[in-house]
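Morning!

This is the sequence you dropped in the shared folder:
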Amino acid sequence: MKQIALYLAVASLLVTACQPKADKHTCTTCSTTQHDTTDRTNNFYDNEATHQLPTVSLVVDGEIESEVNVDYSSLPLRTVIVKEAKLNVDGTNSFIGAYRYDGHSLFDIINSVVLKKKNSAEFPPIIDLYVEVSNAKGEKVVISWGELYYPNNLHNIIIANAVMRIVPSKTKELWPLPDSSKLIIANDLLTERNITNPNRITIRSLNASLEIRKGLSPMYSESFIMQQNEKQPVEVKAIPKNLSQVEYHTIFYGRGKGIHSTTPFKGYMLKDFLAPYYPISTQNIKTGLFMVAGTDGYRVAITYSELFNRNDQSEFLLIDDASNSDGGRFALFPAGDFFSDRAVRAISLIHFEN
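The structure's back. Tokens below.
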């Protein structure tokens, strides 16, 4: 009996060693805190030591019922893998390093926050929401609600509290290690939005004065307006002839009405159409925000980064279908979204601000 008790005690100690330590925000499994020094597993992302990153207090405010002080210890841990690079002044980019980050997803952090949209009376849908993430240094980045809650792959935006280098097996290059917590947006190609020590998340809705015409039928937009802050609006009547059309096979599924169709979508990459008007820059990547609106007043928020700075090639399509008398001529298809809610019919306005 004494021997059995001893075995049980040892087993208990081993189990305890693998449990999360909420006060230190360590990883929830031993596989992410103990690295594979002999390369005996098929996992490329456990071969190096994991380094803890000290976090700062985090507040959620904005268009919500009441301000929230985030309790990290109550949240599950998530893992993302990232190749970090920065945009240079001359338009080229500089590679920083490859990493595995562990932390808490923004999906989980604001999941239980009670929303209180300032425009809910006129426009109840939440698809016009976005969040500003900022730190004590005054840095700020913008993330759309679609990036958080609508993508095909969830939990790719985290606040990291641990990091591991992903070291090349031949060159053995040791990338520089961060020394503080970071906002990590795993779907970004250039990681300008990965700011350090985020301490505030502010939820906002698009500031728009558009007439809501719910149930409008038929809907048709012979042209649409592009507008940027105080610049002169541009009317678009046709897609430039130098742009090539692409076809996406899809299962078109709405959050409310479910399956719409399995018909392929043909259109032009929206980023290719917009590129001459909105050149890439660090500021645009960090805080650029588009509003795409239909003739019925339905509008969605899309960040500049998720249009121009993706690493998953899941593009937004601008569709030009003059034969579609109810939902045409111009429409938007969000290929990277699980739900169809950011699909806009009969586009009348594309507005940009940064």
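Headline: Residues 134 and 140 are 4 Å apart (CA to CA).

More detail when I'm at my desk.
O.
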